[in-house]
Amino acid sequence: MEKKPNFSGPRKPAPAAPRPKPAPQQQQRPRRGNERSSKDPYVTNEHIRAKEVRLVGDNVEQGIYPIEKARRLAEQMELDLIEISPNAEPPVCRILDYQKFLYQQKKRQKEQKQKAAKVVVKEIRFGPQTDDHDYNFKLKHAQGFLKEGSKVKAYVFFRGRSILFKEQGEVLLLRFANDLEDLGKVEMMPVLEGKRMTIMLTPLKTQSQKKAEAAKAADNNREASKADSAKNQPKNAPAAED
């Protein structure tokens, strides 16, 4: 009977037992505002250094609060404590979503810039002894400018000794403003500056413009109400049974 040879060489090490995986830790929701960029226009949450603040807004009971209580309220609502008037005594704060607040501020600034950029001033020149034909021709142009939403700057230019007729120039400009009262209002009464006497008219808002602005404001209010109601709904609300 043959004997099996005995191997006296080194044995392979047994594989190491796998290490048990650590139990997954519950991830905590990061606190908003822990890190503040130098470009942030507002101070928020833990970065507010005042000992007490005045809370304003529709979603809180307005009044003066210790800073710890104000921060607690913001945490309970899962929103941010935003310092909107740091120079007030005490500083004025609101509890809002910071990113949404910044978006609304940028949107408002953009709308203001657009309104400022849209202001166009049209100039109309008269002489102190302008005849009726020339006057009516320029009056018709001014009516068109005001209807399109432009301001009208009308002036009488006095050349040489015609400055002696400055009273006639003032009467002419006042007549001009009176003939345009249905389309524009006087922003600046006749003023004599050097050889020019100037009057400024700004266009009146038409009924259609007023209705459009009112409709836009109503739409903005409805969108804000929908956003607030969606935010106030419980996240884990039970589904309705069929």
Keywords:
242 residues, alpha+beta, Ubiquitin-like (UB roll), Translation Initiation Factor IF3, 5-stranded mixed beta sheet, 4-stranded mixed beta sheet, 5 helices, 36% helix, elongated
CATH topology of the domain at 119-203: Translation Initiation Factor IF3
Number of helices: 5
Question: What is the assembly state of the chains in this entry?
Answer: single chain
Query: What fraction of residues sit in β-strands?
Result: 15-25%
CATH architecture of the domain at 119-203: 2-Layer Sandwich
Tell me the CATH superfamily of the domain at 119-203: Translation initiation factor 3 (IF-3), C-terminal domain
- N-to-C terminal Cα separation, in Å? 82 Å
Low-confidence regions: 25-31, 235-242
Helical proportion, percent range? 25-40%
The CATH class of the domain at 119-203, by name, is Alpha Beta
Order of helices and strands: EEEHEEHEHEHEEH
How many DSSP-defined strands? 9
- Spatially, the strands of the biggest sheet line up as 1-4-5-2-3
Mean pLDDT level: 79
Largest sheet: 5 strands, mixed
Shape: elongated
Radius of gyration: 36 Å
Structural class computed from helices and strand pairing: alpha+beta
